[in-house]
Structures are given as structure tokens and as C-alpha cells.
Amino acid sequence: MKSILEAKIKNDPQFAKLFAEEKAVLEATEMICEWMENKKISRAELARRLNTTRANVTQRLNGKNASLRSLAAMAYALGGEIHFKISEIQVACADKEINFQGGKLIQPSRWGKAKFMDTNIEDAKEMEGLAI
Fold this sequence. Notes:
With about 130 residues, the protein is an alpha+beta fold. The protein is about 50% helix and about 15% strand. The protein has a 4-stranded antiparallel sheet, with no helix packed on it.
């Protein structure tokens, strides 16, 4: 059975875009928090290093005003740097995995290459017997 979140992501492109953005910010801020914990650096100390307030650091770590530039500055102040990658969006459907690219369904083939299907997601689910 599919979760409500998975169904919403599959059926609402605007929601899927917003979810992807929020997920990226969450992952980045979580990495920074883990780095701070491992280095035993407090928010107050990070704020001192950034020449800002603890409240500002807290807001950034909560995802407010968290630009790529501000996250990179935080990582640098902690003695690190941010690396990221872009990968295909993946949502598990029962025992199959489908990737979305440019609003079209990509069905992985046995040979590791993607097969583009010129159809919408609802039609593809019907063809493949995938149900939400």
C-alpha cells in the first residue's frame, strides 16, 4: 500500500517540486548539524565564527533563509565544505521503481539504460498495473 505522501508526490507536480526543495534543504541542514555535533561546536560558537547571532544560525538550520551560499558559509566556518549530487527522482511503487524526468516516466531496462515512455504518469501506472 502506498503512503499518502507518495501518492501526493506522484499526482501533484507542484507538490513534488516543493517536496524536493524542502528535502534538499533538510538534508543539507541535517549534515551541518551532524558536523557540528561531531566537532562539538555549538550554535553560539558557529554564530561567533560567522559574525552573526545565534538566532540567525538557528533560523538557517531550521531552513529559513537557508540559501546555498549561507549553507556553504556555515560549512566553511565549521572547517568543511559542501558536496552534493543530482540524481534521478525515485519513488518506489510496489515492487517496481519508477523515475521521473521532465514529467515523463522512465522505466529502467534490464541493460541499465532508461526507456522513455511518452505518456503521462497515470497512463503509465495503468499500463504497468501500478496502483497507489
